[in-house]
Structure formats: C-alpha cells, structure tokens
Amino acid sequence: MTLERGRNTTTERSLEATLYDVAIVGCGPVGATLANLLGQRGLTVLVLDREADIYPLPRAIAFDAECMRVFQTLGIVDVLRPHLLVSPGMKFVDAKGRVLIDWSRPVDVGPQGWHPSYRFHQPELERALRQRLTAWPKVDVRLRHDVFALDEREDHVQLRLERLVDGSLHRSRARYVIGCDGARSLVRRLMDSTLEDLHSHERWLVLDVLLKRERPDLGDHSIQFCDPVRPSTYVRGVGRRRRWELMLMPGDDAATIMRPESVWPLLSRWLEPAEAELERPALYTFHAVVAKGWRKRRSLIAGDAAHQTPPFMGQGMCAGIRDAANLGWKLADVVRGAAPERLLDSYESERAPHAREFIETAVRLGAVIQATDAEAVRLRDEQMASNPQIFATPQPPLGSGAHVDDELGGRVARQPRLADGTLLDERIGYGHGVLAAPDWTTAAATALALSHPEVVVVSADSALAQAWLQEAGARAIWLRPDRYVGGAASDARALFELAQRCAPRKMR
User: Fold this and answer.
1) pLDDT tens-digit readout, 383-414
2) Judging by DSSP bridges, how do beta strands 222-226 and 89-94 pair with one another?
3) CB-side exposure of 381: number of CA atoms within 13 Å?
C-alpha cells in the first residue's frame, strides 16, 4: 500500500464493496497512530483525510515518555531519534526574571525506559507515522476524501464522502468510525456530543522562527515570562527552530499583528530580524474543554475532537496519543471477538478524567502566566518569588474501567530493561502481557495457556524488573497493551481473575 492523493492505486479494494473493521476520519498524529496500532493488530482500516498532504509547518512541539513508548511499539523510534531533542523542562519567571515555578525535568532515562520529555517537529513525526502505515496491507489510506455524513446501521456505519479531486460522491462501510478530525470535529457533531467548558479561552500569537546562527544564550529550558505587560512563552525546538507565544493584549489589532512589521518589534527583546527567518505566525485561541460522550454506539472520538487544552503543559498531542493507545486494543479485541462490545464504554470512563486532570493543571498554570491585574500580579510575585514552587508532571490514574481500582491498577506501567538488554515493551508488542517473578514465570504461563494463549508472559529477570514486583508486593503484574497496569496478582487464582477482567475471552 502507498499513500496517495486521490485514488489508492495499489489495491483493488473498493470503498463501496468493503466492510472495514474501522474507519478513521482524520490522518493527523492521532489518527495515523491509531491506524498503525490497528493495522499492527491485523484489522482492516480505512483512513480518510480531506487534505492532500501533511501540513508542512510546526504545530505540536512536545511529547513525553508515554508517547515514545507508543512510537516504540510502532517501530518508528530509530526514524524519529535524529529529529528529537531531550527537553530539560520549563521555568516560570516574573517580570524581574525571578523564578516562580521550576519545572525542570531529568535529562536521563526514566522508569518508562525513555526520557521524560522530548521536543520534535510535527511534520517529521507525521511523515514517520504515514510511512509506517505502508507496512500494514489491510490499512487503506484515502487522501482528499471528505466525510460529510454518517448513517448508523445495525452492524455497521455507512460513511458518505466526497472525493475532492473530482467532486464525485462515494459511500463506504465500517463496523466502527473514529473521529480524529480535530477541534471542529464533524464526527463529534454528528454524535450530538457536547463540550464541557473548563473556562480558559485566551488569544495568543504563536511565532515559529528558524535561527540563522546559533543562539545558546536563549537557553534550552522553555521559559514562561509571567509579565503582565505581555505574558509570553519561549520554547526551544529541534535544530535551530525556536517558538515564541505572545498573549494578545487590549489594543492589539488581530488583523495586522501577524505582519512582519508588527512581529519583529514584539520579538525585539530576544531577537533581531537579521538573526532569524519567520517561519509561521499564527493566531490561536487556547481552549480548555472536554467532550461529554466519547462514544455513541459505533461512533467514537479521539484527540482534539474529545478534548482541548491550553499549551502550558505541552500535553495536547500527548493526550491524543494516549487516546489512540487506549482505544486501539479495545477495538481490536472487540472486533476479533476477544472482548464484549461493552469494553468500548471503558474508553471514555478511563480517558476522560485522566485528560481532564492534565487540562485543569494546564489551566492553573495558565492562570499564573496570564495574570495581568496589577494587584493580583504583585501578590503572586511576592508569594511565589519568596518560595518558588517545584512542579512535577501529574501522574493520574485512569478512571474506572478495564483494570483493578487500587494503588497500582490503572497507572502507567514501568518499562524496565531485562537481563538480555531488551526493554519490556519489546517482548510484549501491542498486546496483553504479564511480568512474572522468575520462579513463577512457567506457572503463570501455564495458568493462562488454555484461556488466553496470546498473552505474553515475561520473566522479571533483571534487578529493575524484580524491584518493581517487590514494591508492588506481587508475583505478577498484568500489563495492558496501552502500557497501563491492569492489576497485580500474588497467586494463580488472582492472575486468572485479572485475565478475565482485562482480556475476557480466548483470542480468535
């Protein structure tokens, strides 16, 4: 299969004749990630996108270790690695340069087997994801195809779409439709899903520039300038890419502020026109919303269609990648008959509160930087400058769903390196796994062999792996495909009960 702009020339598959397992509307990072995960699990997938190609300019600029584990599962890490920068974190400073919040992150590898934070260039990521789609023969990508209606049937959804290169109208069918179609999602609207407002809506000017020479004085930390005259953000990108985000203030003219003659005076604090090329000016309204209703029968939403966040934590795309990892295995298990359809209800119940915690934290951080009232700013600066806050990235558990609700279940799993040097996820792939104590590995595999033969049992044969089991007080830890913990077991009966909860039936 190849990616093309109008017609898929490498397959005889007909849009009208084929009943796909899943149709994905939107081939951005979230849609492409989901398509790869489903393709890896052997599902027939139709991917539809109205654009002819990848958007060539920067948008998302950061992702975390959880995302990197998903990209590891997809086999694109080696392609991405030359285009990544390990991020040392972020600092919030007041108008005098005093640190209010220190959000420095370790630059060494963390418990998930990767660095906590990376900077990247979105077009490079999208190219890697789309190229990887060509590895899955059952994934059918149709660019320049615009969905305009969904008709629910008893056992499938009929999609009506326009082929934009010639205006011709077509129909297709899929057992499930996933809207990865962004903040203005058509799929969400057709599902009658509403957005809950978390009360943060501010307009910002985002400026991406390419330096013409090195500027080490700008630093590698991202800086939030909490200056009431104009709250601003500096972000170190990969290579010579740099980003500034500037809050629009009363008196700014949105019609002219993106012009070079307006932009360069705004950047003069850091940069002169001769030092850089202005790559992309853009106006954004930073929203904080969470959809109510991520599933309606056979239609579901993910990414910006389901939630939107201010950028102050760099978690917008990350949340969408988590959606894809959570939803992908559930769709695969349901389509293959390994799980009942009600498993799909756990997608929203798990992901919505998790995403909400990150969004609410971003809103709180936004309130720190976006404060402009003189008295409020004075009190903030006095309180925080005398006692700077040390901030750590939240690690919330999933909401209730396909895991045990305890201290371990529903939390992101560690990824220890094993005795042979491989990382844990490499042994499991995008499936269910069990990390078992070395002297119990054979017994665990035997206990699961008849009812769950596709579950991979891995021996905790390294010090790091054994330390995790000991901290959990367990003989085995159930690892879900999305790298979250299903639960822990101390004997064969408890392990079998976990299997019933996390992978309910024998795989077909």
Assistant:
1) 887 888 889 899 999 999 999 999 999 999 99
2) parallel
3) 19
DSSP 409: T
- Which of 312, 249, 227, 239 lies closest to 277, judged by CA? 239
Task: Tokens for 501, please give them.
Answer: 């909860």
**Can you list the pairs that 216-221 forms with residues at least 24 positions away whose Cβ atoms lie under 8 Å?**
218/242, 218/270, 220/85, 220/87, 220/88, 221/88, 221/89, 221/90, 221/91, 221/104
Give the containing element (helix H, strand E) for 160.
strand 157-163
- Report pTM: 0.95
Which residues are bridge partners to 278 per DSSP? 209
User: Residues 407-442: pLDDT tens digits?
Assistant: 999 999 999 999 999 999 999 999 999 999 999 999
What sign does the dihedral 165-304-37-425 (CA atoms) show?
Answer: positive
What is the C-alpha separation between 181 and 202, in angstroms, rounded?
22
Interatomic CA distance for residues 356 and 345, integer angstroms:
17
Q: Within its chain, how far is the Cα of 206 from the centroid? A: 21
Name the 3-class secondary structure at 271: coil
Taking the alpha carbons of 507, 323, 26, 126 in that order, is the dihedral positive or negative? negative
Q: What residue spans of 218-298 are helical by DSSP H?
A: 260-267
Instruction: Look up residue 190 and give its amino acid.
Output: L
What per-residue confidence (pLDDT) applies to 453?
Answer: 85
Backbone angles phi, psi at 196, to 5 degrees: -90, 125
Helix (H/G/I), strand (E/B), else coil: 57: coil
How far is the CA of 486 from the CAs of 146, 170, 333, 373, 443, in angstroms? 38, 42, 15, 47, 19
Contacts of 407 (CB under 8 A, 6+ apart): none
Distance CA 64, CA 106 (A): 12
Closest CA to 313 of 405, 419, 235, 423: 235
Q: What's the confidence (pLDDT) of residue 11?
A: 42
What is the residue-wise DSSP string for 73-139? HHT-HHHHGGG-EE--EEEEEETT--EEEEEE--SS--TTSS-SEEE--HHHHHHHHHHHHTT-TTE
Nearest-angstrom CA–CA distance, 488 and 469: 9
Name which of 83, 334, 301 is nearest 193 in CA terms: 301
Residues contacting residue 470 through CB under 8 Å, at least 6 positions apart: none
DSSP 10: T
Strand partners, 179: 25, 301
pLDDT value at residue 13: 58
Exposure string for 389-415, b = 16+ CB within 10 A, e = fewer: eebebeeebbbebbbbeeebbbebbbb
Find out whether 245 and 235 touch, Cβ atoms under 8 Å.
Answer: yes
The mean pLDDT value for 483-496 works out to: 92
* Cα distance between residue 371 and residue 100, in whole Å: 13
